[in-house]
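Give me structure tokens for this 87-residue protein.
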Amino acid sequence: MFIFDRKNYRLMLIGLLLIGLGFILMSGADANTNPKGIYDKNYFNEDIFSFRRIRLAPIFIITGFIVQIFGILSAGEADNEADNEKV
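Here you go.
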């Protein structure tokens, strides 16, 4: 008897992939890297405020955490069958 069912592990894997994708979308050059990829303290990169980094990536990360929580807390099919047999 396992604590989690196949459905639980699948949901947790999907949540982990969403979190990873969110962090990949959030990555990029820092505020002082010019378009040639060279650090320049007199240059300010406006790309750190892009839609992808500010809005899209956090949505993926939060959704991934919600899927993780649902995957952990949802009852597996084996638990439902055991509850039905007790009644």
